[in-house]
C-alpha cells in the first residue's frame, strides 16, 4: 500500500513539473511573438525610404526615391562633415527633391527619412556626392618651382586668389588692375613638394580653381655659395677673377655657386684652378644668363689639375660690346696647359660664340658631356675643337640636344696627336649646320678604341643655299650608326671623280625638307610635324 501511495505522489509531481514547463514555454512564445510583431510594425521596416537615383550639377543635387503609402512627408539633410553639422534641411511630400544654390565643387553627404502619423523611419544615408566645378578661366598651372608658382588666366577679371592646402587657408592674394591687365600673378612663400589649390573670386563669388604641386628644392653637394640675393647691378659684375680666386682659396675641394634665374651676369674671362659648379637656381624666369665678353681658361702656370667644371641651368649668350664674329668669344678657350677630369653642361643654352670648347694648347679633359642643351649661332671653331697636337678629350658625350646655325664642326679632332677613346652622340637634332664643305665630325686618323656611336639623331639642312657637307671622317673600325634620319635638303658632298658621297653619315632620308619636318625652322622651332620620327630620333624636347 505504501508503494502505491508513493507512486501516485511521484506521478502527481511529474505532472506538476510538466505543467510548469508548458506554461513557461507558452509565456516565452508569447513574449517572442510580441517582439516579432513589434519588429514588423516599426516604421523603419515599413517605409524607410531608399534613394534610387541621384544627379548633380554646378550648384544643385537632385534625389529620387520610392513613394511610401503610409508616409506623410520626407525629411532630407545635406552635410559636408558626415552630419556633425547640417548644411541644408528640406521637407517634401513628393518622391523627389532638388537642392539648389549649393557650393561649386563640394562633396555633400545626403540622408533621408519618412514621417507618418505618430511614427517615423530611421535615416537612409546615401553615399557622398559632389557638385561640379565652376567653368574657370584660370589656366592650368604649369610654371612651378619649389617655393613659387605662376598663376594666369584669360577673359576674366578677379579681385582675389585664395591659396588652400588640404582645406586649410594658406594665403589670400588681392589683385589689382595691373594684375588683371597682365592676367598673371606670382604666388610666393610656398613649401616644396606640397600640393595646393588656387581658388579665384570676384566680389565674393567663386570663379573656379586650379591645382598644382611644388617641386622639391635642389640638393647641392658640398659647399654652396648662393648669389641669388644680390641686386641686379651687383650681380652683373660679380663673376670676375677676384671672385673665382676667393672661391679657390676658401673651397679648394670645390664649390657650387648658385646664380639667380633670369638675372644677367657678365663674364669678362676667368682662369680656373679649383673645382667649380655654376648653376642657375630654380626660377620662374628661366636660366641664369651669363653675357660672355671673354672665356674660361686654366691658370697660366700650366699646373692646373682639377676634378670638375660643371654648368647647369645657364644661358651663355652675347655681350653688347662683342658682337663681331659672335664676339670672338668662347665658353672655354684653353690657352694654358692643365687637366680637368670632367667638363659638364646640363640644361644650358649656348649662343653667339666663336666656339663652345676649344683647346689650343696641351690641355686635356677626361670627359666632356653636353646633355639637354641648345647650342645655336656658333662660329668656325664649332662645338668641341681639339685644336692642338697636345689637346685631348678622352670621352665625349652629346645627348638630348639641339645644334643649329653652326659654322664649324660638332667635334673636330683632326689636329691633335692624342687618341680620344670614345664618342657618343644620341638623340641630337641639327639644322642649318654646318656650312658648305665642312664635316659634322672631323676625326681624321683617330681610332677611338672604345668606339664611335651616333644613334637616334636627326640631321636637317646644312647652313647655306645649295651647299653640300661631309658627315663623319675617322680611322675607327668600331663605329655604330643606328636609327638616324636626315631631311631631303641635307646633301652630302660628292667626289667629282668617283661620284660617290664623301664621308656621309648613314641615315634614312625622310623624303621631306626641313619645312615639312619641323614646325618653324627659320625661327628655331624644331617641333616635329613629321610623325614618322617622333619618339624615335632627334632632341626629345621637339617630340
From TrEMBL:
Residues 326-403 form the DUF4957 domain. Coiled coil: none annotated. SUPFAM superfamilies: Fibronectin type III, Pectin lyase-like. The chain crosses the membrane at residues 7-32. The keyword Lipid metabolism does not apply. Residues 439-542 form the DUF5123 domain. Keywords: Membrane, Transmembrane, Transmembrane helix. This is Fibronectin type-III domain-containing protein. It comes from Thermophagus xiamenensis.
